[in-house]
Structure to design on (103 residues):
């Protein structure tokens, strides 16, 4: 039983944590903050990429049309900092999601 608990705790600690806030020193980055606020707190990103969200129209049995929308998916800004990789997803110039994981 203890082995299962240790494995479960390890898996949980190594997982990606998505949230709407990120503590940076004594400051907090939150969903809804501007791109200027992200640069102020985290600096220039290591890399940027476009995140795409897709949605299907039609029946669930495969007869639908799949639409990929660049704008709704936003842009992902990646940062490497203090043994972490942080990905900030920006939509319309605002933070929509923050993911943080240990390396």
């Amino acid at each position: 039983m203890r082995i299962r608990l240790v494995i479960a705790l390890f898996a949980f600690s190594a997982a990606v944590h998505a949230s709407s806030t990120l503590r940076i020193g004594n400051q907090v980055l939150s969903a809804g903050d501007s791109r200027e606020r992200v640069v102020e707190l985290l600096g220039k990103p290591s890399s940027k990429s476009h995140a795409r969200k897709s949605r299907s129209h039609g029946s669930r049995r495969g007869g639908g049309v799949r639409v990929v929308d660049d704008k709704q998916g936003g842009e992902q800004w990646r940062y490497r900092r203090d043994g972490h990789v942080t990905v900030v997803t920006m939509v319309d110039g605002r933070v929509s999601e923050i993911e943080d994981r240990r390396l």
Summary: The helical segments are 2-14, 35-42, 70-73.
